[in-house]
Amino acid sequence: MTEAVLWAKTEDGVVTLTLNRPEARNALNTAMAEALLAGARRAVAEEAKLVLVRAHGPVFCAGADLKERKGMDEDQVRARRLKGFVAYEALERLPMPSIAVVEGAAVGSGGEIAAACDFVIATPAASFRTPEALWGTVGATQRLPRIIGKRLAKDMMFTGRSLSAAEAVQAGLVSRLVEVDALEETLAEIARVIAAAPASALRQAKRCIDEGVERDPRGALATELMAIEENLAEGAWRRTMAGFGKAAE
C-alpha cells in the first residue's frame, strides 16, 4: 500500500511532507489525515527547523475523498472529519515555521492544509476553491475568513468561485508567487535562511504572532513581553549579538 504522505528530512533539519495520492488527486482520506498528523508529530519530536508541505502530481489536494465516505454512517463520517481537523491543527501548531508549496489546485481540505501552514508559496498553476456548501456539507469556514476576510470567503463558499494564484496573492492567502523554473531555488534559499536562524527566536516570534492576532493590543503586547523575557533567560541572543557585523569586517 502506498504511503499517503511521504517523509523526508535534510541534514540541516528541513522536513518535507509530501501528499502522495496522485491517482486520487491527493484527496484527503483517513490514511492521509493520520499520516499528516504523524508527520507533524515526528517533525516536533525530531526538532525540525522548517516543515514544507508539498504534493505529488498536478493537484495539491482535491478536497476530501468522497469515495471513501460512500457507505459510511454519520458516526463514521464524523470520526473521519475529526481526524482531518486534528491533522490541520497539528500543522497549525507546529512550533517551527511551516510552508505550503502549492503547484496546483487546492480544493476544500487542500485549502485547509495550506491555510494551516504559516504561509503559502505558489506557482502560477495554483488555484484555491472551497465549494463545501455547494456539495451539501460544511467545512473550511474558519481559517480562510481569518486570512482573506469574511466577504471573499463567503463569495468562494456560496458560489464555488476559484481564486487564481495571482488573486490569492492579492487576497493575502499566498505570500509569494514563483515561476516553476525558479521554485526549487527559491525554496532552497528560504530553507537556508530559516535553518541558519536561532530556532528558539523563530519559535517565540511565531507564538507571538499567532497568539497576538487573537488578543486585544494589550494582551498581544503582554505575549511579546513574556517572549522577550524567555528569550533573555535563554541567553542565545548574546551569541548572535557577539557575531553581529563580523561577517562584514
Automatic annotation (TrEMBL):
Residue runs in coiled coils: none
Key words, A-Z: Lipid metabolism, Lyase
Pfam entry (one): ECH_1
Superkingdom to which the source organism belongs: Bacteria
InterPro entries hit by this protein: ClpP/crotonase-like_dom_sf, Enoyl-CoA_hydra/iso
PANTHER family assigned to the protein according to its UniProt record, in alphabetical order: (7AS)-7A-METHYL-1,5-DIOXO-2,3,5,6,7,7A-HEXAHYDRO-1H-INDENE-CARBOXYL-COA HYDROLASE, ENOYL-COA HYDRATASE-RELATED
Protein name: Enoyl-CoA hydratase/isomerase family protein
